[in-house]
Amino acid sequence: MSFKKVNEKLEINKRLKNDTELKKAYDEAQREYEIVKQLVKMRNEMGLSQSDVAKKSGLTQQMVSRIETVDNSPTLKNFIKYIDSVGLEIKIVKKTEGMEYSKV
Please, which contacts does 10-13 make with residues 24 or more away whose CB atoms are closer than 8 Å? Predict the structure, then answer.
């Protein structure tokens, strides 16, 4: 049996276009990924280790590590402790019409 090269981005986009539930789940996961990625990037730019964040926030280093893992959903209380300890703030703003999150 021969293998055929598949353009995974094209396949993902096709499936997202045809399956609204999949698209919704994908967009949600993408937003979570972007938030976690931005947190880690900003923490690193500030020269802070996970241990530094743990000491400042009162969380354990393991809890900080879990917050920085996409597959984990921290409590809002712990997320805010993390955000505060690195000198960041959360702002809630209204979405603009037609805003797209999926970037495949």
Answer: 12/104, 13/104
Question: Which pLDDT score is estimated for 1?
Answer: 65
Residues in the chain, total:
104
Question: Three-state DSSP class for 77?
Answer: helix
Q: How far apart are CA 1 and CA 104, in angstroms?
A: 30
Q: Quick check: is 62 in a domain?
A: yes
Give domain status of residue 103, yes or no.
Answer: no
Residue pLDDT, tens place only, 33-82: 999 999 999 999 999 999 999 999 999 999 999 999 978 889 999 999 99
Structural domain containing residue 29: 8-85
To the nearest 10 degrees (0 to 180), the angle between helices 50-57 and 76-85 is 110
CATH number of the domain that 77 lies in? 1.10.260.40
The domain tally of the chain equals 1
Alpha helices in 19-75 (DSSP H): 20-45, 50-57, 61-67
What is the per-residue pLDDT for 42?
95
